[in-house]
Amino acid sequence: MAVSAPTSKFDIVMLGASGFTGKQVLKEALKFLTNFNSLAIAGRDPSKLAQALNWAARPNPPPSIPILAADTADAASLRLLCGRARLLLNCVGPFRLHGEPVVAACVAAGCDYLDITGEAEFMERVEREYHAQAVKNETLVVSACGFDSVPAEMGFLFHSRQWVGPARPNRVEAYLGLESEKRIVGNFGTFESAVMAVKDLKEMEQRRVIRVKPKIPGPPPKGEIIEHQKKIGLWGVTLPSADATLVGRTLSTLTESPHGLPGLNESEEMVEKRKAFWSSVKPAHFGVKLGSKSLLHLFGFITIGIFIGLLGRFSFGRWLLLKYPSIFTFGGFSKNGPSEEEIASASFKMWFIGHGFSNESLAAEGNTKPDTEIITRVMGPEMGYVTTPIILVQCALILHTQRNNLPKGGVYTPGVVFGPTDLQERLQQNGISFDFISKSSLST
Protein backbone atom coordinates (compact mmCIF):
# COMPACT_ATOMS: atom_id res chain seq x y z
CA MET A 1 0.00 0.00 0.00
CA ALA A 2 1.51 3.32 -1.09
CA VAL A 3 1.85 6.04 1.50
CA SER A 4 2.04 9.72 0.54
CA ALA A 5 3.45 12.73 2.34
CA PRO A 6 0.61 14.37 4.30
CA THR A 7 0.99 17.64 2.42
CA SER A 8 1.35 16.38 -1.17
CA LYS A 9 -1.26 17.57 -3.67
CA PHE A 10 -2.89 15.28 -6.24
CA ASP A 11 -4.28 16.14 -9.67
CA ILE A 12 -7.07 13.60 -9.25
CA VAL A 13 -8.51 11.95 -6.15
CA MET A 14 -11.13 9.25 -6.64
CA LEU A 15 -13.50 8.86 -3.67
CA GLY A 16 -15.33 5.55 -3.31
CA ALA A 17 -12.99 3.50 -5.50
CA SER A 18 -13.84 0.24 -3.69
CA GLY A 19 -17.57 0.33 -4.53
CA PHE A 20 -18.89 -1.71 -7.45
CA THR A 21 -19.01 1.25 -9.85
CA GLY A 22 -15.94 2.86 -8.25
CA LYS A 23 -13.85 -0.24 -9.04
CA GLN A 24 -14.88 -0.02 -12.68
CA VAL A 25 -13.97 3.70 -12.78
CA LEU A 26 -10.57 2.90 -11.24
CA LYS A 27 -10.01 0.15 -13.83
CA GLU A 28 -10.75 2.66 -16.63
CA ALA A 29 -8.58 5.37 -15.02
CA LEU A 30 -5.57 3.02 -14.90
CA LYS A 31 -5.61 2.90 -18.73
CA PHE A 32 -4.79 6.62 -18.69
CA LEU A 33 -2.46 6.68 -15.69
CA THR A 34 0.35 8.33 -17.67
CA ASN A 35 -2.04 11.18 -18.62
CA PHE A 36 -2.35 12.27 -14.98
CA ASN A 37 0.60 13.74 -13.10
CA SER A 38 -0.71 12.21 -9.88
CA LEU A 39 -3.70 10.06 -8.91
CA ALA A 40 -4.88 8.91 -5.48
CA ILE A 41 -7.83 6.82 -4.32
CA ALA A 42 -9.82 7.39 -1.14
CA GLY A 43 -12.51 5.79 1.00
CA ARG A 44 -13.43 4.52 4.45
CA ASP A 45 -11.49 1.26 4.35
CA PRO A 46 -7.86 1.33 3.06
CA SER A 47 -7.70 -2.48 2.91
CA LYS A 48 -10.76 -2.62 0.61
CA LEU A 49 -9.22 0.12 -1.54
CA ALA A 50 -6.02 -1.94 -1.84
CA GLN A 51 -8.11 -4.96 -2.91
CA ALA A 52 -9.95 -2.81 -5.47
CA LEU A 53 -6.62 -1.58 -6.87
CA ASN A 54 -5.40 -5.17 -7.21
CA TRP A 55 -8.64 -6.12 -8.99
CA ALA A 56 -8.56 -3.11 -11.32
CA ALA A 57 -4.92 -3.66 -12.30
CA ARG A 58 -5.14 -7.40 -13.04
CA PRO A 59 -3.48 -9.25 -14.70
CA ASN A 60 -0.72 -6.65 -14.08
CA PRO A 61 0.67 -5.88 -10.61
CA PRO A 62 -1.02 -2.84 -8.99
CA PRO A 63 0.67 0.51 -9.62
CA SER A 64 1.98 2.57 -6.72
CA ILE A 65 -1.07 4.79 -6.13
CA PRO A 66 -1.52 6.55 -2.76
CA ILE A 67 -4.48 5.33 -0.69
CA LEU A 68 -6.15 7.94 1.51
CA ALA A 69 -8.66 7.45 4.33
CA ALA A 70 -11.82 9.58 4.16
CA ASP A 71 -15.44 9.12 5.22
CA THR A 72 -18.46 11.05 3.90
CA ALA A 73 -19.79 11.09 7.48
CA ASP A 74 -16.58 12.74 8.76
CA ALA A 75 -16.43 16.39 7.67
CA ALA A 76 -12.87 16.86 8.95
CA SER A 77 -11.57 13.95 6.83
CA LEU A 78 -13.31 15.38 3.75
CA ARG A 79 -11.78 18.82 4.36
CA LEU A 80 -8.30 17.27 4.56
CA LEU A 81 -8.96 15.21 1.44
CA CYS A 82 -10.26 18.10 -0.68
CA GLY A 83 -7.39 20.28 0.48
CA ARG A 84 -5.05 17.78 -1.20
CA ALA A 85 -6.98 17.46 -4.49
CA ARG A 86 -7.25 19.64 -7.57
CA LEU A 87 -10.12 17.50 -8.87
CA LEU A 88 -12.25 15.02 -6.94
CA LEU A 89 -14.21 12.22 -8.64
CA ASN A 90 -17.07 11.11 -6.39
CA CYS A 91 -18.40 7.55 -6.77
CA VAL A 92 -20.09 7.27 -3.35
CA GLY A 93 -23.85 6.87 -3.58
CA PRO A 94 -26.71 7.17 -2.99
CA PHE A 95 -25.80 10.81 -3.47
CA ARG A 96 -28.91 12.12 -1.71
CA LEU A 97 -27.44 10.56 1.48
CA HIS A 98 -23.69 10.89 0.99
CA GLY A 99 -23.07 13.51 -1.72
CA GLU A 100 -23.67 16.91 -0.16
CA PRO A 101 -20.83 16.83 2.46
CA VAL A 102 -18.39 16.00 -0.36
CA VAL A 103 -19.60 18.91 -2.51
CA ALA A 104 -19.44 21.26 0.49
CA ALA A 105 -15.83 20.25 1.24
CA CYS A 106 -14.79 20.64 -2.42
CA VAL A 107 -16.35 24.08 -2.78
CA ALA A 108 -14.79 25.28 0.50
CA ALA A 109 -11.35 24.03 -0.60
CA GLY A 110 -11.59 25.31 -4.18
CA CYS A 111 -11.31 21.74 -5.49
CA ASP A 112 -13.17 20.91 -8.72
CA TYR A 113 -15.78 18.13 -8.48
CA LEU A 114 -17.28 15.53 -10.83
CA ASP A 115 -19.68 12.70 -10.00
CA ILE A 116 -21.79 9.99 -11.65
CA THR A 117 -25.17 10.60 -10.02
CA GLY A 118 -28.48 10.63 -11.85
CA GLU A 119 -30.42 11.79 -8.77
CA ALA A 120 -32.38 14.93 -9.73
CA GLU A 121 -33.19 16.02 -6.17
CA PHE A 122 -29.52 15.94 -5.14
CA MET A 123 -28.45 17.91 -8.23
CA GLU A 124 -31.10 20.59 -7.69
CA ARG A 125 -30.16 20.88 -4.01
CA VAL A 126 -26.46 21.26 -4.82
CA GLU A 127 -27.17 23.93 -7.43
CA ARG A 128 -29.44 25.82 -5.03
CA GLU A 129 -27.09 25.65 -2.02
CA TYR A 130 -23.58 25.84 -3.52
CA HIS A 131 -23.66 27.63 -6.88
CA ALA A 132 -22.92 31.13 -5.52
CA GLN A 133 -19.99 29.96 -3.37
CA ALA A 134 -18.64 27.80 -6.20
CA VAL A 135 -18.63 30.84 -8.52
CA LYS A 136 -16.85 32.90 -5.84
CA ASN A 137 -14.20 30.20 -5.19
CA GLU A 138 -13.80 29.39 -8.91
CA THR A 139 -14.74 25.76 -8.25
CA LEU A 140 -16.43 23.70 -10.96
CA VAL A 141 -19.12 21.32 -9.68
CA VAL A 142 -20.48 19.02 -12.39
CA SER A 143 -22.79 16.13 -11.57
CA ALA A 144 -24.16 13.43 -13.91
CA CYS A 145 -20.84 12.73 -15.67
CA GLY A 146 -21.81 9.13 -16.42
CA PHE A 147 -24.51 7.36 -18.38
CA ASP A 148 -26.79 9.75 -16.53
CA SER A 149 -26.72 12.04 -18.37
CA VAL A 150 -23.90 12.56 -20.88
CA PRO A 151 -25.27 10.36 -23.72
CA ALA A 152 -28.58 12.25 -23.47
CA GLU A 153 -27.00 15.71 -23.20
CA MET A 154 -24.20 15.30 -25.73
CA GLY A 155 -26.58 13.29 -27.92
CA PHE A 156 -29.12 16.11 -27.85
CA LEU A 157 -26.45 18.71 -28.68
CA PHE A 158 -25.19 16.53 -31.55
CA HIS A 159 -28.76 16.09 -32.83
CA SER A 160 -29.62 19.77 -32.48
CA ARG A 161 -26.63 20.77 -34.60
CA GLN A 162 -27.94 18.69 -37.52
CA TRP A 163 -30.74 21.23 -37.99
CA VAL A 164 -28.79 23.54 -40.32
CA GLY A 165 -29.69 26.92 -41.81
CA PRO A 166 -33.32 27.95 -41.66
CA ALA A 167 -34.36 24.51 -40.33
CA ARG A 168 -35.35 24.39 -36.65
CA PRO A 169 -36.37 21.52 -34.35
CA ASN A 170 -39.54 21.61 -32.28
CA ARG A 171 -39.42 18.32 -30.40
CA VAL A 172 -36.68 15.74 -29.85
CA GLU A 173 -37.58 12.43 -28.23
CA ALA A 174 -34.84 10.01 -27.12
CA TYR A 175 -35.60 6.28 -27.15
CA LEU A 176 -33.30 4.22 -24.94
CA GLY A 177 -32.91 0.61 -26.05
CA LEU A 178 -30.95 -1.91 -23.98
CA GLU A 179 -29.46 -4.99 -25.62
CA SER A 180 -27.77 -8.05 -24.14
CA GLU A 181 -27.02 -11.65 -25.04
CA LYS A 182 -27.60 -12.52 -21.37
CA ARG A 183 -30.28 -11.15 -19.07
CA ILE A 184 -28.49 -8.42 -17.12
CA VAL A 185 -29.31 -7.68 -13.48
CA GLY A 186 -29.32 -4.01 -12.46
CA ASN A 187 -27.28 -2.60 -9.56
CA PHE A 188 -29.18 -2.24 -6.27
CA GLY A 189 -27.87 1.33 -5.80
CA THR A 190 -29.64 2.44 -8.98
CA PHE A 191 -32.89 0.86 -7.79
CA GLU A 192 -32.51 2.45 -4.33
CA SER A 193 -32.04 5.90 -5.94
CA ALA A 194 -35.25 5.43 -7.98
CA VAL A 195 -37.23 4.40 -4.88
CA MET A 196 -35.95 7.35 -2.84
CA ALA A 197 -36.65 9.75 -5.72
CA VAL A 198 -40.40 9.12 -5.25
CA LYS A 199 -40.08 10.21 -1.61
CA ASP A 200 -38.34 13.43 -2.68
CA LEU A 201 -40.74 14.40 -5.50
CA LYS A 202 -43.05 16.69 -3.51
CA GLU A 203 -40.23 18.62 -1.82
CA MET A 204 -38.36 18.90 -5.12
CA GLU A 205 -41.39 20.42 -6.86
CA GLN A 206 -41.81 22.95 -4.05
CA ARG A 207 -38.13 24.01 -4.08
CA ARG A 208 -37.39 23.71 -7.80
CA VAL A 209 -35.11 26.40 -9.23
CA ILE A 210 -37.05 28.76 -11.52
CA ARG A 211 -35.34 28.92 -14.92
CA VAL A 212 -35.46 31.03 -18.05
CA LYS A 213 -37.14 28.99 -20.79
CA PRO A 214 -35.79 29.05 -24.34
CA LYS A 215 -37.93 30.15 -27.28
CA ILE A 216 -38.84 27.10 -29.35
CA PRO A 217 -40.60 27.56 -32.71
CA GLY A 218 -44.01 25.99 -33.17
CA PRO A 219 -46.66 24.79 -30.71
CA PRO A 220 -45.74 22.62 -27.70
CA PRO A 221 -45.87 18.94 -28.73
CA LYS A 222 -48.54 16.61 -27.39
CA GLY A 223 -46.34 13.74 -26.27
CA GLU A 224 -47.96 10.35 -25.71
CA ILE A 225 -47.00 8.21 -22.71
CA ILE A 226 -46.60 5.19 -25.01
CA GLU A 227 -45.46 5.64 -28.62
CA HIS A 228 -44.45 3.30 -31.42
CA GLN A 229 -41.59 4.33 -33.71
CA LYS A 230 -41.65 2.06 -36.75
CA LYS A 231 -38.41 3.44 -38.25
CA ILE A 232 -36.34 2.21 -35.32
CA GLY A 233 -38.61 -0.72 -34.44
CA LEU A 234 -39.23 0.31 -30.83
CA TRP A 235 -42.16 0.90 -28.54
CA GLY A 236 -41.42 3.60 -25.97
CA VAL A 237 -42.82 4.55 -22.58
CA THR A 238 -41.98 7.85 -20.87
CA LEU A 239 -38.94 7.43 -18.60
CA PRO A 240 -38.85 9.75 -15.57
CA SER A 241 -35.07 10.20 -15.58
CA ALA A 242 -32.83 13.19 -14.92
CA ASP A 243 -31.87 13.39 -18.62
CA ALA A 244 -34.69 15.73 -19.69
CA THR A 245 -34.12 17.94 -16.62
CA LEU A 246 -30.41 18.33 -17.41
CA VAL A 247 -31.02 19.14 -21.08
CA GLY A 248 -33.54 21.75 -19.90
CA ARG A 249 -30.94 23.24 -17.53
CA THR A 250 -28.37 23.42 -20.33
CA LEU A 251 -30.82 25.15 -22.68
CA SER A 252 -31.80 27.58 -19.91
CA THR A 253 -28.14 28.51 -19.35
CA LEU A 254 -27.72 28.93 -23.10
CA THR A 255 -30.77 31.23 -23.22
CA GLU A 256 -29.11 33.50 -20.67
CA SER A 257 -25.62 33.15 -22.21
CA PRO A 258 -26.08 32.48 -25.98
CA HIS A 259 -22.32 32.05 -26.54
CA GLY A 260 -21.84 29.76 -23.54
CA LEU A 261 -19.78 30.53 -20.43
CA PRO A 262 -16.31 32.10 -20.78
CA GLY A 263 -13.37 30.04 -19.59
CA LEU A 264 -11.10 30.68 -16.62
CA ASN A 265 -8.30 31.94 -18.88
CA GLU A 266 -9.29 30.68 -22.31
CA SER A 267 -7.33 31.06 -25.52
CA GLU A 268 -8.64 33.18 -28.40
CA GLU A 269 -8.98 29.99 -30.41
CA MET A 270 -11.23 28.51 -27.72
CA VAL A 271 -13.35 31.69 -27.57
CA GLU A 272 -14.09 31.35 -31.29
CA LYS A 273 -14.68 27.61 -31.01
CA ARG A 274 -17.05 28.07 -28.06
CA LYS A 275 -19.07 30.79 -29.79
CA ALA A 276 -19.31 28.79 -33.03
CA PHE A 277 -20.41 25.67 -31.16
CA TRP A 278 -23.18 27.29 -29.14
CA SER A 279 -24.48 29.35 -32.08
CA SER A 280 -25.10 26.06 -33.92
CA VAL A 281 -27.17 24.57 -31.05
CA LYS A 282 -30.94 25.00 -31.44
CA PRO A 283 -33.30 24.48 -28.50
CA ALA A 284 -36.20 22.01 -28.63
CA HIS A 285 -38.67 20.30 -26.32
CA PHE A 286 -36.93 17.15 -25.06
CA GLY A 287 -38.13 13.92 -23.51
CA VAL A 288 -36.81 10.41 -22.92
CA LYS A 289 -38.58 7.10 -23.42
CA LEU A 290 -37.52 3.60 -22.42
CA GLY A 291 -37.66 1.58 -25.62
CA SER A 292 -38.43 -2.08 -26.28
CA LYS A 293 -39.08 -4.16 -29.40
CA SER A 294 -41.78 -5.99 -27.45
CA LEU A 295 -44.96 -4.31 -26.22
CA LEU A 296 -45.24 -7.06 -23.60
CA HIS A 297 -41.80 -6.17 -22.17
CA LEU A 298 -42.88 -2.54 -22.11
CA PHE A 299 -45.85 -3.41 -19.89
CA GLY A 300 -43.37 -5.16 -17.58
CA PHE A 301 -41.43 -1.86 -17.26
CA ILE A 302 -44.70 -0.03 -16.62
CA THR A 303 -45.66 -2.50 -13.86
CA ILE A 304 -42.28 -1.99 -12.13
CA GLY A 305 -42.80 1.78 -12.42
CA ILE A 306 -46.24 1.47 -10.80
CA PHE A 307 -44.79 -0.57 -7.90
CA ILE A 308 -42.10 2.06 -7.30
CA GLY A 309 -44.53 4.99 -7.74
CA LEU A 310 -47.14 3.62 -5.32
CA LEU A 311 -45.00 1.93 -2.66
CA GLY A 312 -42.24 4.57 -2.76
CA ARG A 313 -44.59 7.15 -1.20
CA PHE A 314 -44.70 5.35 2.17
CA SER A 315 -41.91 4.31 4.53
CA PHE A 316 -43.22 0.73 4.82
CA GLY A 317 -43.58 0.54 1.02
CA ARG A 318 -39.99 1.75 0.56
CA TRP A 319 -38.82 -0.85 3.10
CA LEU A 320 -40.57 -3.60 1.12
CA LEU A 321 -39.10 -2.44 -2.19
CA LEU A 322 -35.56 -2.21 -0.81
CA LYS A 323 -35.83 -5.49 1.11
CA TYR A 324 -37.08 -7.48 -1.89
CA PRO A 325 -35.86 -5.67 -5.05
CA SER A 326 -35.75 -8.86 -7.12
CA ILE A 327 -39.45 -9.64 -6.45
CA PHE A 328 -40.77 -6.17 -7.32
CA THR A 329 -38.66 -5.90 -10.50
CA PHE A 330 -39.20 -9.49 -11.73
CA GLY A 331 -35.50 -10.18 -11.24
CA GLY A 332 -34.42 -6.94 -12.94
CA PHE A 333 -32.49 -5.64 -9.89
CA SER A 334 -30.57 -7.49 -7.22
CA LYS A 335 -28.38 -6.64 -4.23
CA ASN A 336 -25.62 -8.71 -5.86
CA GLY A 337 -25.57 -6.64 -9.06
CA PRO A 338 -24.61 -8.02 -12.49
CA SER A 339 -21.84 -10.51 -13.17
CA GLU A 340 -18.79 -9.60 -15.26
CA GLU A 341 -20.15 -11.83 -18.07
CA GLU A 342 -23.50 -9.99 -18.03
CA ILE A 343 -21.70 -6.64 -18.17
CA ALA A 344 -19.54 -7.75 -21.11
CA SER A 345 -22.59 -8.89 -23.12
CA ALA A 346 -24.67 -5.71 -22.69
CA SER A 347 -24.91 -2.52 -24.78
CA PHE A 348 -27.22 0.43 -25.34
CA LYS A 349 -28.62 2.43 -28.22
CA MET A 350 -30.18 5.85 -27.69
CA TRP A 351 -32.13 7.04 -30.72
CA PHE A 352 -32.96 10.75 -31.06
CA ILE A 353 -36.05 11.39 -33.20
CA GLY A 354 -36.50 15.09 -33.92
CA HIS A 355 -39.50 16.74 -35.56
CA GLY A 356 -39.30 20.35 -36.69
CA PHE A 357 -39.54 22.79 -39.55
CA SER A 358 -37.58 22.95 -42.80
CA ASN A 359 -37.80 26.74 -42.43
CA GLU A 360 -38.24 28.57 -39.15
CA SER A 361 -40.70 30.98 -40.80
CA LEU A 362 -43.21 28.11 -41.18
CA ALA A 363 -43.50 27.88 -37.40
CA ALA A 364 -44.56 31.52 -37.21
CA GLU A 365 -47.70 30.74 -39.23
CA GLY A 366 -49.58 29.41 -36.23
CA ASN A 367 -50.34 25.75 -35.61
CA THR A 368 -48.33 24.47 -38.56
CA LYS A 369 -47.32 20.85 -38.03
CA PRO A 370 -43.61 19.98 -38.31
CA ASP A 371 -42.61 18.99 -41.84
CA THR A 372 -39.13 17.53 -41.20
CA GLU A 373 -37.78 14.56 -39.27
CA ILE A 374 -34.12 13.97 -38.34
CA ILE A 375 -32.91 10.80 -36.63
CA THR A 376 -29.54 10.45 -34.89
CA ARG A 377 -28.16 7.83 -32.51
CA VAL A 378 -25.69 7.40 -29.67
CA MET A 379 -24.62 3.85 -28.88
CA GLY A 380 -22.05 2.13 -26.74
CA PRO A 381 -21.26 -0.68 -24.28
CA GLU A 382 -23.09 -1.56 -21.05
CA MET A 383 -24.40 1.60 -19.37
CA GLY A 384 -23.56 1.54 -15.68
CA TYR A 385 -20.20 -0.19 -15.41
CA VAL A 386 -18.55 0.36 -18.80
CA THR A 387 -20.02 3.51 -20.38
CA THR A 388 -20.17 5.44 -17.08
CA PRO A 389 -16.44 4.94 -16.26
CA ILE A 390 -15.45 5.84 -19.84
CA ILE A 391 -17.41 9.10 -19.61
CA LEU A 392 -16.23 10.09 -16.12
CA VAL A 393 -12.55 9.45 -16.92
CA GLN A 394 -12.73 11.42 -20.20
CA CYS A 395 -14.45 14.34 -18.43
CA ALA A 396 -11.69 14.21 -15.80
CA LEU A 397 -8.96 14.23 -18.47
CA ILE A 398 -10.53 17.28 -20.14
CA LEU A 399 -10.83 19.10 -16.82
CA HIS A 400 -7.24 18.18 -15.96
CA THR A 401 -5.71 19.28 -19.29
CA GLN A 402 -8.06 22.08 -20.40
CA ARG A 403 -9.05 23.78 -17.13
CA ASN A 404 -8.29 27.29 -18.45
CA ASN A 405 -10.81 26.82 -21.29
CA LEU A 406 -13.64 25.72 -18.96
CA PRO A 407 -16.01 27.97 -16.96
CA LYS A 408 -14.42 29.73 -13.99
CA GLY A 409 -16.67 28.16 -11.37
CA GLY A 410 -20.23 27.26 -10.46
CA VAL A 411 -22.64 24.32 -10.44
CA TYR A 412 -23.36 23.36 -14.06
CA THR A 413 -24.49 20.50 -16.26
CA PRO A 414 -22.02 18.39 -18.26
CA GLY A 415 -23.43 19.91 -21.47
CA VAL A 416 -22.66 23.49 -20.39
CA VAL A 417 -19.10 22.63 -19.31
CA PHE A 418 -18.06 20.00 -21.87
CA GLY A 419 -20.28 20.79 -24.90
CA PRO A 420 -17.73 22.92 -26.81
CA THR A 421 -14.75 20.71 -25.84
CA ASP A 422 -13.53 17.56 -27.59
CA LEU A 423 -15.58 15.27 -25.29
CA GLN A 424 -17.64 13.84 -28.16
CA GLU A 425 -14.49 12.96 -30.12
CA ARG A 426 -12.91 11.39 -27.01
CA LEU A 427 -16.00 9.26 -26.38
CA GLN A 428 -15.99 8.13 -30.01
CA GLN A 429 -12.35 7.05 -29.65
CA ASN A 430 -13.34 4.99 -26.59
CA GLY A 431 -16.29 3.04 -27.96
CA ILE A 432 -19.29 5.42 -27.72
CA SER A 433 -20.44 6.46 -31.20
CA PHE A 434 -22.50 9.45 -32.39
CA ASP A 435 -24.23 8.80 -35.72
CA PHE A 436 -26.42 10.75 -38.12
CA ILE A 437 -29.06 8.27 -39.36
CA SER A 438 -31.54 10.06 -41.63
CA LYS A 439 -33.36 13.21 -42.63
CA SER A 440 -36.79 13.05 -44.25
CA SER A 441 -39.92 15.09 -45.00
CA LEU A 442 -43.09 14.50 -43.01
CA SER A 443 -46.49 14.52 -44.67
CA THR A 444 -48.52 17.36 -43.15
From TrEMBL:
SUPFAM superfamilies in the record: NAD(P)-binding Rossmann-fold domains
Domain Saccharopine dehydrogenase NADP binding: 12-141
InterPro entries in the cross-refs: NAD(P)-bd_dom_sf, Saccharopine_DH-like_oxidrdct, Sacchrp_dh_NADP-bd
Coiled coil: none
TM region positions: 295-316
GO biological process: glycolipid biosynthetic process
Keywords, sorted A to Z: Membrane, Transmembrane, Transmembrane helix
Highest taxon above the source species: Eukaryota
GO cellular component: lipid droplet; mitochondrion; plasma membrane
Protein family (similarity comment): Belongs to the saccharopine dehydrogenase family.
Name of the molecule in the record: Saccharopine dehydrogenase NADP binding domain-containing protein
Annotated organism of origin: Phaseolus coccineus
